[in-house]
Specification:
The protein is an alpha+beta fold. It has one domain (7-241): Double-stranded beta-helix, CATH 3.60.160. It contains six helices and 17 strands. The protein starts with 6 loop residues before the first strand and ends with a helix.
C-alpha cells in the first residue's frame, strides 16, 4: 500500500510534539493515547493493526495486533482521518522529555528497525510489525535489544527518543553502545549484544553487564537519556530513597 503524503511541523525543544497537516481523506496512524489536539473535521477510529493491508482478514489483524503485546504496546492503533473540506491539523505529543525524529522511509530503502517503545505515529500505509533479534547474545538479555519494532513503507514516520538525539553513519565500522541508548537503525546493520568487558568491569564499572554492538554500513540513531535511566535517576533522587539511604548509613555508623 502506498503511504499517504503528509505535511508536518515539530514544535518545542525538550518536550516536543509533532503537528501534522492532513489533506481531505488523508490519514495518520498513531499509538493509542498519543494525540494532543485535533482540529474540527478530523475524526479518529481505534482499530486492530496499522491499516497497511486493508484486505487483511479478521484473524490476520488479530495475529498482527497480538504480536504488539510482546513489545509492551497496545494491540490497538488510532487512525486519524481528515473528513473536512480543507486542510486540517492533528498533533501528537512525546510521552517523556526528548526529541521527535522525522524519518522519510522512502529515503532509507523503505525499512527501519526501532526500539520497542520508540514509534509515535506515521502516514497511513506504514506497516508496523515486531522484529525479533535472533542472535543468542540478544536473546539472553531478553528485554532490551531482543524485541524491537520494524517499520515498512514509503512515507513519513515519527520516532520518539529520550534526551538528546544523535545520528551516526557507519561505513563498514563497529560501534558499541549502552543497550538502552539505541533508538533506531537501518536493517542492513548487524546488531548483537555482548558482555561488557571483564568480570571486574561488569561488576564495578557502572555500565551494566552488556553492551550493544552495531556493525556494518548504514545509519544509526542514538538517545542520551533512555526512559530506563530516567526512571532510575528519579527513583534515586526521591525523598523515600534518600531517607532509606540515611537510615542505612546511620546503621553502619552505630555499628
Amino acid at each position: 500500500m502506498i503511504s499517504h503524503e503528509i505535511d508536518y511541523k515539530i514544535v518545542g525543544d525538550d518536550i516536543q510534539f509533532v503537528e501534522i497537516e492532513l489533506d481531505p481523506q488523508e490519514t495518520v496512524v498513531a499509538e493509542a493515547g498519543a494525540m494532543m489536539f485535533m482540529e474540527d473535521g478530523i475524526t479518529f477510529e481505534t482499530k486492530l493493526g496499522d491499516g497497511s493491508t486493508p484486505n487483511q482478514g479478521f484473524m490476520g489483524k488479530v495475529l498482527s495486533a497480538g504480536s504488539r503485546l510482546i513489545t509492551g504496546e497496545s494491540i490497538f492503533m488510532t487512525h486519524f482521518t481528515n473528513h473536512g473540506y480543507g486542510k486540517r491539523k492533528v498533533a501528537f505529543a512525546a510521552p517523556y522529555p526528548g526529541k521527535i525524529i522525522p524519518i522519510n522511509l522512502k529515503q532509507i530503502k523503505g525499512q527501519l528497525v526501532v526500539q520497542k517503545d520508540g514509534f509515535l505515529c506515521a502516514a497511513l500505509g506504514t506497516k508496523i510489525s515486531i522484529h525479533l533479534n535472533r542472535k543468542l547474545g540478544a536473546g539472553l538479555v531478553g528485554g532490551e535489544g531482543f524485541i524491537l519494532q520494524k517499520l515498512d513503507g514509503d512515507g513519513m514516520a515519527f520516532i520518539h527518543a529520550g534526551g538528546t538525539v544523535v545520528e551516526k553513519t557507519l561505513t563498514n565500522e563497529t560501534l558499541r553502545i549502552d543497550t538502552g541508548c539505541i533508538v533506531a537503525y537501518e536493517p542492513q546493520i548487524d546488531f548483537d549484544i555482548e558482555t561488557a568487558g571483564s568480570l571486574k568491569s561488569m561488576v564495578f564499572g557502572g555500565e551494566g553487564l552488556f553492551v550493544a554492538t552495531l556493525r556494518g554500513t548504514g545509519r544509526v540513531w542514538l538517545q542520551s537519556m533512555p526512559i530506563r535511566k530516567l526512571i532510575q535517576r528519579l527513583s534515586i533522587m526521591s525523598p523515600a530513597s534518600r531517607k532509606e539511604g540515611r537510615s542505612i548509613l546511620g546503621g553502619f555508623l552505630e555499628d
